Amino acid sequence: MEVDSKPMRRLREKTGVENLWLYVLAELAKGDCYPYALRRAVLEDFGVDAGKVVFYVVTGKLEAEGFIEGYYRDRRKYYRITERGRRLLKEGIAYLRTLADRLERVSEGGAARCEG
Fold this sequence. Notes:
Blueprint: H1 6-15, H2 20-30, H3 35-46, H4 52-64, E1 68-73, E2 76-81, H5 83-108
């Protein structure tokens, strides 16, 4: 039921790679991981495909802001989500849920407000 149109492609882009932080936090909420494995997990779980380097950039920024913390194991840098990161993830999910609910509510009912 997927419509292949310019607006849908843009929506997938904006809610995908451009907001990769949300998917990274969701994966880290399940357990610690390193960027290369995060890339595979995000692709498998969400269908979001971003370059390898992007995951290193995103994890670096999330770590700098205290949403995740890194540690080294077996010559790899792993990340774990912090409590601050869990709060951000919940806030992001709540925002998307509220937005989806509003879109459905507005499009399914009520009198038109735009009639002139």
